[in-house]
Design goal:
elongated; mainly alpha
Length: about 110
């Protein structure tokens, strides 16, 4: 992967990731800390045992390709502000985790 991708803003990285698989992997890598932080908050607010954190982070990263493709399909509807894709993804990540937890409790 080129080091040029490491210096891109989120918005630039999203645009690059649309056409460059290496940039797409970089975007996923840069998204991971946000997913971890959101998962920790979710665990604390819902009283979920902490030992499930890694499991839920994995679940939260699972829909990346699907969500990224949805985002690209509707990119004209999205804000151009920095950080928007991460916020957008966190919403989908939480949804994936809630669906996963619900499926395990049924």
């Amino acid at each position: 992967m080129s080091s040029a991708n490491e210096n891109l803003s989120e918005r630039q990285l999203v645009r690059e990731a649309a056409v460059n698989p290496a940039a797409r992997e970089q975007l996923k890598k840069e998204l991971l800390p946000y997913v971890v932080q959101a998962t920790k908050k979710l665990i604390q607010s819902r009283g979920i045992p902490e030992h499930r954190e890694q499991e839920l982070v994995t679940v939260g990263m699972t829909p990346f390709d699907r969500v990224f493709n949805i985002y690209l399909k509707n990119i004209g509807e999205h804000y151009e502000e920095e950080g928007y894709f991460y916020k957008y993804y966190i919403w989908w990540m939480r949804k994936a985790i809630f669906e996963y937890l619900h499926s395990k409790s049924v």
